[in-house]
Specification:
It is elongated, with a radius of gyration of 36 Å. The protein has helices spanning 2-21, 43-47; strands spanning 63-64, 80-81, 83-85, 88-90, 93-96, 104-107, 110-111, 119-121, 126-128. By secondary structure, the protein is of the alpha+beta class. The protein has a domain at 63-124.
Amino acid sequence: MKRRKLWAMLIILMVSGLFGCSGRGPSKAQREPKRIFKDANDLGANDAKRPRLELSPPEPKLDVIASEGGCAPKSENELAVASCYKNVACRGQWARTEKGGPAECWCYAKKGGCDEGTICCAVSRKCEKLENCYAP
């Protein structure tokens, strides 16, 4: 009885294996069209036309001084950076570039802080008009 079951199982496996292998062969993948690459030497001619990235100046290492008093410029924008040091307002942060050096107003990489009509934006890390400083 056991042998019959084993032989029957073996025959079923062999038949199913033959049916599985006898079908069509693997489908051929569609051929991609040949790519035509431009000559590598023509890059120099088009190089002048490509737009260039403008890098911002590197930010100096600053020792930020805590704001004192209430003379910091007010702004409706919560992303505006402003501070006060010895009753002098700054659209940016008061900081020292050297330990023990003089305190200077900085808006990240811009020495002197931001001009009238602009704010020091914490998101873009530069001087912006009020309406241009927002979180993405």
